[in-house]
Amino acid sequence: MLGAIFMKIIIIGSSGSGKSTLARELAKKTDYPVLHLDKVFHKHPSDLGRIKLREATRDFISQNENGIIDGNYGSSLSERLPYIDEIVWLKGSRFKTVFRVIKRSILVRLFHKNRSDMAEEFREKWDKDYLEFLNFVWTFPEKEFPQIEQKISEFAVWDKVIILKNRKDKEKYLIKYDRKTKN
Question: Which residues contact 106 (CB under 8 A, 6 or more apart)?
Answer without folding.
Answer: none
